Structure formats: structure tokens, C-alpha cells
Amino acid sequence: MLLLALDTATPAVTVALHDGTDVIASSSQVDARRHGELLLPAVDRVLAEAGLRLDAVTAVVAGIGPGPYTGLRVGLMTADAFGLALGVPVHGVCTLDGLAFAADLEGPFVVATDARRKEVYWARYADSRTRLTDPAVDRPADIAGQVSGLPAVGAGALLYPDTFPRAHEPEHVSAAALARLAAEKLAAGEELPAPRPLYLRRPDAQVPKNYKVVTPK
């Protein structure tokens, strides 16, 4: 197995290679506005670090969010392109699950990433491998009762200490954690989600109300 993992659902542009035993190369850069510029060079970098070519990859794993539309589509479209070009399967992993796996906490806790608009993408976990709730997007104050007293990880938790007073790192997901989680699940025969985006809310760009269609005479 040579698993190529990548995630662009958060400000981190992160890539890793997993050889079936462990991560052999990884790269992470935080820049919310340059996902498209940074992703392919990061793939080249981890392949060079591992001394391998892209055609050695046997499967691709992509973080499916939740996350903003622009960032998510960069990673998922790239993963799909690699899968088609190489003729290998492409799997999805929830980005929040990757953060939970990296946190390696015991007992219930929360993962929350920054959804902007003073909201967070979040979910509750029983442990680092077991999600208890579906990913959701909410204002921190609206979920305070559901997360009260629980440890929390992720940029969203760190941004709102009143709601998440026990927040700590990791701040962003790493493809290394995503790769380890995916490899573990695949080895156990578990089915991973399809590589389709979890947006959770409508895109900012919408057709204006009362839009008048102009037809040629």
C-alpha cells in the first residue's frame, strides 16, 4: 500500500504518504488563500522526500470537510484527478475525524474548526476514533450547553474560549493523522465515505432574488 492523503478543508494545506505501516513523508502549510497554489507543490515535495513517483500511489484519501466551498473543492478535485489518472480508488475521511484522531484524547471531547461568520463546524467524540454526532455548523453560544465542560480541539475551539474553555491544539488537521486513520480503517476492512464534500451550508454566491431573465429578440 502507498496511500496519498491530502486535506484542504481548513487553512492548512496538508499532504502525507503512508506505506501501510506508517507515514513516510508529510507536509503542512497554513495559508487560507493559497490552497490551489500550494497543494501540488506539496504533493511533489512529499513524493521527493520519500524517493517515490506518483505512479507508485495505490490509493488516495481526501479530507471531505466540513469546510468552505473554495478550499474543499481544491483538495477533492485534485484527489479525483489523481484517482482517474492513476486508476486507483479515492476515499474520503471527515476532516473533524482526522483532528480527533490526532488529538488522541480519552473520554468525551469536542472537535471544532472555524466556519467563519462567527460559527464553527463541530462534532462530539467518545474517543479519538468514535464520533458521536454528525458534523454540524452553529454559533458557539448556541451549542454551549452541549459542549459544556468538555475538552475541545481545533481552531474553532481556540477562537471561542467562552464556549470552549478547555480548548487546546491541534489547531488544524494534518494529512499524517488522516492517513494513519484511513490506513487503520482500511486494514480493518471498514468502508470509508465517498470523496464528496461536506459543505453544511449554502454557498455565498447565489442568484439574486427577482432575477430578470433577458431573452434576445
Automatic annotation (TrEMBL):
Organism: Streptomyces anthocyanicus
A Pfam family of this chain: TsaD
Domain Gcp-like: 32-145
InterPro entries assigned to the protein according to its UniProt record, in alphabetical order: ATPase_NBD (IPR043129), Gcp-like_dom (IPR000905), T6A_TsaB (IPR022496)
Record CDD domains: ASKHA_NBD_TsaB (cd24032)
Lineage: superkingdom: Bacteria
Listed SUPFAM superfamilies: Actin-like ATPase domain
The protein's Enzyme Commission number: 2.3.1.234
Protein name per Swiss-Prot or TrEMBL: tRNA (Adenosine(37)-N6)-threonylcarbamoyltransferase complex dimerization subunit type 1 TsaB
Gene name of the encoded protein: tsaB
Key words of the record: Acyltransferase, Transferase
UniProt GO molecular function: tRNA N(6)-L-threonylcarbamoyladenine synthase activity
